Q: What sequence folds into this?
């Protein structure tokens, strides 16, 4: 390019630049703005954990672990305590704190927050030096422990919990020896809690395991007023023998478990030795016997209704009590042996694991609008499951139940509408506990076998094993912090110590082959 041409183009370039400057300086020109649209995505799943306690033996501390519901991963893990291993565990109603009773009689408290599940944040609750603790009951505040020494319930308060006072159970006229289980209000706003006693002195701790049908007395429940920590008049669990006379009927032998409904209207006590369930009206603080058939009572709508102080679970119990379910006895077996139950609020049904009969009982316990037993109350369906179902869990929506069959090493899945078995899954070990949570469109079922280090997780959408997690030590027990993704929805806040009528850590035949026919309570509670 020549120098002359360059000079000739310079005015043209300058004019173009000047025009550009004028246009840029004009503030009325439209300049498009791009605003990004960010996708919110699906809502986060509610926080929920499976709480696992494992054991490596009586002389070493147990390990606590938190399992994430959504990812099936171990979020936090820490040793529990500094000495003896755990015998039993539970978590409180709010899903905030876990508790273990240990082989040396101490109680360890641990946080259920992943960042705080650390040894430095654990505390030990000091029991009376002579205490013989069996069962831990952990409502939203405080803690109650049944204590065989003196037949009392030890009450704790504060944070961490400190021993407040012992409350004797029973009365001078109705003895209540061997208190082994506590049930009642999930919060301190309820009226009372209930301490369930075997009703006789069980020196071995295995009388209700090895020979529950020959127990020498009926069980007794002692109501304890929450506001005053004082005991009410004890209630004998057999309505036909209110004084618990040795010469009277024995329709409530070996009570081993109890369920309080969330509305605090009814308490259901499972009597393993008699194949029955005793019904307590929590509003009247007495047996549910105010309006017996054939006369009954009339509600505000002019309808006649009846009360039901005892519900039979086997044909043997029907004959002994003289009570027949409204739908008859079709499907009932000659023996039941109930050891665990869940109340499902969606269907108003009590779902029971019958350990000795290998069945599950599905019982209508619905109430009318005035809190009276409904016309269908007591309707019972009996479904065969696996051998020795040690526990049962029900999905929050009430569609299916899952039993942990200890001898079979299986989980049976039961459709609660058709009352039929849908599927049977094989799991690792001999399961003793099964729990569930339904925090989204699908749920998770957690299965614990005390003779295995694997936690089995089943997904409810397919009812197939989702995964098995290898834990540090054998899985002694498991709980979930919520059952439906909302806070304060844990409905299992009592522990289940092996023995005293509750299944040992191994099924009966395996207990005998492992420890001999004369195995002891220590063997029953040992880490297999």
A:
């Amino acid at each position: 390019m020549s120098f002359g041409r360059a000079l000739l183009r310079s005015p043209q370039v300058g004019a173009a630049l000047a025009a550009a400057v004028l246009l840029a300086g004009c503030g009325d020109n439209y300049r498009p703005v791009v605003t990004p649209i960010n996708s919110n995505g699906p809502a986060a799943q509610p926080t929920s954990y499976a709480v696992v306690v494992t054991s490596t033996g009586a002389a070493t501390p147990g390990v606590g672990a938190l399992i994430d519901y959504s990812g099936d991963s171990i979020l936090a893990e820490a040793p529990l305590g500094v000495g003896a291993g755990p015998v039993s565990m539970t978590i409180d109603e709010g899903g905030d704190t876990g508790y273990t009773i240990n082989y040396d009689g101490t109680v360890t408290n641990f946080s259920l927050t992943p960042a705080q599940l650390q040894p430095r944040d654990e505390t030990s609750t000091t029991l009376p030096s002579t205490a013989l603790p069996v069962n831990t009951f952990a409502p939203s505040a405080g803690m109650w422990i049944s204590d065989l020494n003196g037949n009392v319930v030890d009450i704790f308060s504060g944070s961490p919990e400190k021993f407040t006072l012992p409350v004797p159970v029973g009365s001078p006229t109705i003895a209540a020896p061997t208190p082994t289980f506590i049930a009642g209000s999930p919060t301190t706003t309820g009226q009372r809690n209930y301490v369930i006693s075997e009703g006789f002195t069980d020196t071995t701790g295995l009388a209700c395991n090895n020979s529950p049908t020959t127990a020498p007395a009926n069980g007794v429940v002692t109501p304890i007023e929450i506001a005053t920590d004082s005991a009410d008049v004890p209630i004998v669990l057999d309505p036909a023998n209110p004084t618990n006379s040795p010469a009277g009927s024995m329709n409530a032998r070996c009570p081993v478990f109890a369920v309080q409904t969330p509305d605090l209207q009814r308490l259901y006590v499972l009597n393993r030795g008699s194949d029955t369930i005793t019904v307590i009206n929590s509003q009247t603080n007495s047996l549910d016997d105010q309006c017996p058939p054939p006369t009954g009572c009339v509600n505000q709508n002019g309808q006649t209704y009846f009360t039901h102080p005892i519900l039979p679970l086997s044909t043997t119990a029907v004959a002994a009590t003289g009570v027949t379910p409204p739908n008859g006895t079709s499907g009932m077996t000659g023996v039941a042996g109930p050891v665990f139950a869940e109340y499902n609020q969606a269907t108003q049904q009590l779902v029971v694991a019958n350990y000795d009969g290998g069945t599950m009982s599905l019982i209508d316990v619905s109430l009318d609008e005035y809190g009276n037993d409904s016309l269908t109350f007591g309707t019972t369906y009996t479904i065969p499951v696996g051998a020795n179902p040690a526990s049962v869990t029900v999905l929050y929506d009430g569609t299916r139940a899952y039993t942990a069959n200890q001898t079979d090493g299986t989980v049976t899945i039961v459709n609660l509408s058709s009352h039929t078995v849908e599927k049977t899954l094989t799991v690792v070990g001999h399961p003793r506990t099964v729990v569930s949570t339904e925090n989204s469109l699908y749920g998770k079922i957690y299965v614990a076998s005390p003779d295995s280090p694997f936690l089995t997780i089943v997904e409810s959408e397919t009812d197939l094993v989702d995964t098995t997690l290898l834990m540090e030590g054998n899985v002694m027990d498991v709980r979930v912090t919520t059952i439906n993704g909302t806070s304060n929805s844990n409905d299992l806040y009592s522990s289940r110590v092996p023995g005293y009528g509750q299944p040992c850590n191994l099924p009966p035949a395996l207990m005998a082959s492992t420890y001999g026919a004369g195995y002891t309570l220590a063997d029953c509670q040992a880490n297999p």
The longest helix spans residues 3-24. The two ends are 97 Å apart (CA to CA). The chain has a mean pLDDT of 90. The CA atoms of residues 393 and 435 lie 5 Å apart.
